[in-house]
């Protein structure tokens, strides 16, 4: 399968970000569950542990090998089922990622807009962009009752890398 890069450059709160849209034939509550409930996340990206009411959870990617450490996700704002604002940081690294998920439903169709900052180094876009195209396509397949394993990361990286690097050049 070949894929097409879908991200676009945007600025939110003074931070350069990549934004992605995905559309689902599902109600907003269902899509919200797909991006916030640990067991639903585990189908396409990873799982979290902890108690969100404390303001943070530990998130571990499930499809990037065992060496990937858990990241602390801090919940900056949660307005269920429409908006979730997070920051995350990999232990031992200085980069703080700013992530926003916004959902809008119209006539039974829900659009998810996902944004992530690229950090202080625009070259990070070369990995962030292809990675989120890949994972968000896995989400779409999972929510359509398909097999997310049918999505091959090799179709996204390095194929999309230059597109995202050029976006922030």
Automatic annotation (TrEMBL):
Transmembrane intervals: none
Entries under CDD domains matching the protein: SRPBCC_CalC_Aha1-like_6
InterPro entries linked to this entry: ASHA1/2-like_C, START-like_dom_sf
Domain named Activator of Hsp90 ATPase homologue 1/2-like C-terminal: residues: 26-140
Recorded superkingdom: Bacteria
Record-stated family: Belongs to the AHA1 family.
Entry protein name: SRPBCC family protein
Organism the protein comes from: Streptomyces rhizosphaericola
Lineage: Bacteria, Bacillati, Actinomycetota, Actinomycetes, Kitasatosporales
């Amino acid at each position: 399968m070949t894929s097409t890069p879908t991200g676009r450059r945007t600025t939110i709160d003074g931070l350069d970000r990549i934004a992605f849209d995905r559309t689902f034939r599902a109600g907003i509550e269902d899509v919200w569950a797909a991006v916030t409930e640990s067991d639903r996340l585990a189908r396409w990206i990873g799982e979290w542990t902890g108690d969100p009411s404390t303001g943070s959870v530990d998130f571990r990617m499930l499809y990037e090998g065992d060496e990937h450490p858990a990241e602390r996700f801090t919940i900056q704002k949660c307005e269920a089922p429409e908006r979730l604002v997070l920051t995350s940081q990999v232990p031992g690294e200085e980069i703080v990622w700013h992530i926003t998920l916004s959902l809008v439903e119209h006539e039974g169709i829900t659009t998810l807009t996902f944004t992530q900052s690229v950090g202080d180094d625009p070259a990070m876009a070369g990995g962030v962009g292809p990675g989120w195209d890949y994972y968000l396509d896995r989400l779409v397949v999972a929510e359509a009752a398909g097999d997310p394993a049918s999505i091959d990361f090799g179709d996204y990286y390095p194929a999309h890398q230059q597109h995202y690097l050029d976006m922030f050049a």
